């Protein structure tokens, strides 16, 4: 297996198990691969954990290269038992996850796998499962993961942290437990969208009108046209997006989708930041609607991109000469919707900072094109114009200013309060969940076969006296 393939597998593993406190891996062995005699290892309540279940999980983790804390035949069944406790609580609290939401998440996962590995066939080869079987495995995994997450959030939703609590927590940390914060940067950006020829836009609209006419006349099936022509990731599902509320979509799209009433008719053409759409209603359920759509995006020529970079280079010269500031250019010239009202300051939307919207980035969290510019700049420098993908995955011209470069350091309260606050809140949540689980273990019938008992478990009370 080459390095590029290994890196893709690691990405899949991270996407497959997104930050949960539990182990939620997909079994990849087929029934024919099982060469073990099945036996009951644990019983939790009225549910059994079989040796074959543990073996499949272990095989999955070894394939991914995932580190296991301690003996896998202790760690894995304990995590399975913990999941069963959470799922039992979900039944008591009548916590459910909409089936449409689960299937939507599964479709996203499968699209991700296909993009990473290159084809459906390679996905099936990697997971040792045909696509329909893999889909069902994913549905079960995603459903359980979502339910467990809801139970955990219900138990910890009241966790907050005052500045005084964060300070006490920080002062109580041993010196070797204070995290090292890698070098970070703060960046400002100005972007310009390239001009798209009117004829290109009209050609896109003409194609969409043709598709709509064919569907409305009964000459073609919308989902078939979506599979063949749509440029959105949903094309594999015939353009179907699943049940969603208004907040799930950009306003222009949502306004049209929620006003559709006839499933046999196609909407007018809708323009959004992603391109041009036509939409067809599938079903409505309360405040949610399920639609399918076809997305086409006007193509930008190299000349259009060059013209945009030339215009931005002229803006850069005006800033450097003192005609106006970078912040003024961001406010009045920039077409970057995420930063133009924030003086051009980029905010970090990575998984590590989404709770507090930090303006500080580690280099790997920046868009690749921005990182390449920033790497060779000093604070206060402004880059020459370059081409990058914006948040809508479109090519735009951009210039960036390195606002600040913060050297790597041990975390401290003045510079890293948000990081330490998040650490403290996570510590409080883990404590609450640990106490809840150990109480739940005491109240639940648990039987572990003698050959599976010689373990140092994370939670107390599994082995009844």
Description:
A hairpin with a 5-residue loop joins strand 10 (386-389) and strand 11 (395-406). By secondary structure, this protein is of the alpha+beta class. The strands form 4 sheets. A 4-stranded antiparallel sheet has the order 9-4-11-10. It has a 4-stranded antiparallel sheet with strand order 5-8-7-6. The protein is globular and about 80 Å long. Helix 1 packs antiparallel against helix 4 (99-117) and helix 4 crosses helix 6 (131-156). The protein has helices at 3-16, 51-64, 72-92, 99-117, 120-127, 131-156, 163-172, 198-216, 222-229, 251-257, 302-321, 326-332, 368-374, 413-443, and strands at residues 40-44, 47-50, 180-181, 184-192, 240-244, 270-272, 275-285, 288-296, 361-362, 386-389, 395-406, 409-410, 446-448.
Would you summarize the structure shown here?
With 465 residues, this protein is an alpha+beta fold. Helices cover 45% and strands 15% of the residues. The chain has helices spanning 3-16, 51-64, 72-92, 99-117, 120-127, 131-156, 163-172, 198-216, 222-229, 251-257, 302-321, 326-332, 368-374, 413-443, and strands at residues 40-44, 47-50, 180-181, 184-192, 240-244, 270-272, 275-285, 288-296, 361-362, 386-389, 395-406, 409-410, 446-448.
């Amino acid at each position: 297996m080459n390095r590029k393939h290994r890196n893709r597998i690691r990405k899949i593993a991270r996407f497959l198990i997104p930050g949960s406190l539990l182990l939620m891996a997909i079994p990849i062995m087929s029934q024919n691969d099982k060469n073990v005699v099945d036996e009951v290892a644990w019983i939790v309540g009225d549910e059994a954990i079989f040796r074959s279940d543990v073996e499949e999980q272990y095989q999955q983790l070894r394939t991914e290269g995932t580190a296991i804390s301690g003996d896998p035949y202790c760690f894995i069944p304990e995590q399975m038992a913990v999941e069963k406790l959470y799922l039992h609580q979900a039944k008591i609290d009548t916590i459910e996850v909409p089936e449409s939401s689960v299937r939507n998440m599964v479709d996203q996962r499968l699209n991700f796998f296909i993009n990473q590995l290159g084809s459906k066939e390679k996905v099936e080869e990697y997971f040792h499962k045909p696509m329909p079987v893999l889909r069902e495995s994913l549905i079960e995994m995603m459903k359980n993961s979502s339910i467990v997450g809801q139970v955990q959030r219900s138990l910890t939703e009241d966790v907050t942290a005052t500045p005084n609590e964060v300070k006490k927590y920080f002062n109580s940390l041993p010196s070797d437990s204070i995290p090292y914060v890698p070098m970070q940067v703060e960046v400002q950006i100005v972007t310009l969208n390239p001009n798209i020829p009117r004829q290109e836009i009209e050609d896109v609209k003409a194609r969409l009108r043709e598709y709509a006419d064919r569907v409305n006349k009964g000459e073609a099936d919308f989902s078939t046209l979506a599979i063949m022509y749509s440029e959105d990731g949903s094309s594999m599902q015939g353009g179907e997006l699943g049940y969603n509320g208004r907040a799930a979509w950009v306003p222009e799209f949502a306004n049209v989708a929620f006003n559709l009433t006839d499933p046999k008719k196609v909407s007018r053409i809708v323009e959004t930041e992603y391109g041009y759409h036509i939409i067809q209603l599938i079903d409505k359920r309360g405040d949610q609607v399920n639609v399918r759509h076809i997305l086409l995006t006007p193509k930008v020529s190299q000349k259009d991109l060059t013209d945009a970079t030339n215009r931005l280079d002229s803006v850069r010269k005006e800033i450097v000469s003192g005609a106006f500031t970078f912040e003024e250019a961001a406010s009045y010239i920039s077409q970057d919707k995420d930063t133009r009202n924030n003086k051009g300051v980029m905010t970090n939307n990575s998984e590590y900072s989404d709770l507090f919207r930090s303006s500080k980035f580690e280099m790997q969290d920046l868009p690749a094109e921005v990182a390449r510019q920033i790497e060779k700049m000093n604070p206060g420098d402004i880059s020459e114009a370059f081409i990058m993908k914006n948040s809508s995955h479109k090519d735009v011209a951009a210039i960036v200013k390195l606002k600040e470069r913060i050297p790597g350091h041990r975390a401290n309260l003045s510079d890293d309060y948000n990081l330490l606050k998040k650490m403290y809140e996570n510590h409080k949540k883990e404590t609450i969940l640990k106490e809840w689980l150990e109480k739940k273990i005491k109240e639940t019938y648990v039987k572990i076969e003698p050959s599976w008992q010689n373990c140092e478990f994370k939670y107390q009370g599994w082995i009844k006296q």
